[in-house]
Amino acid sequence: MPYMRSSLLNRNRRYPLGKETRCTRHCYRFFVLAAILLGGVTFVSAEGDERVEGVINRLKSLRNTDASLTKSESWNSLKKQFDELQKSLPQGREKARLLFYRAVLFEELGRRGGDSLNLQLAAESFLNLSRSYPGVDLADEALYRAILLFEGDLRDPQKVVSLKEELSSRFPHSEYRFMFSSQVGGKGASHKIISRYSSGILPLVVLDPGHGGDDEGAVGIAGLREKDLVLSISRLIEKYLLESRCCRVVLTRERDEFMPLFERTAMANRLQASLFVSIHINAAEAAHDRVRGYEIFYVSSDANPEAVQLVKRENQLGVTQKAALGGFIQDLYRRGASRVSAPFAKAIFSSMKKEFPKVVDGISLQARGVAKAPFFVLFGAEMPAVLLELFFVTNSDDAYLLSQPSFRELTAEVIATSIANYVKQESVGER
Ligand SMILES: [Zn+2]
Question: How many angstroms is it from 214 CA to the middle of ligand 1?
Answer without folding.
Answer: 13
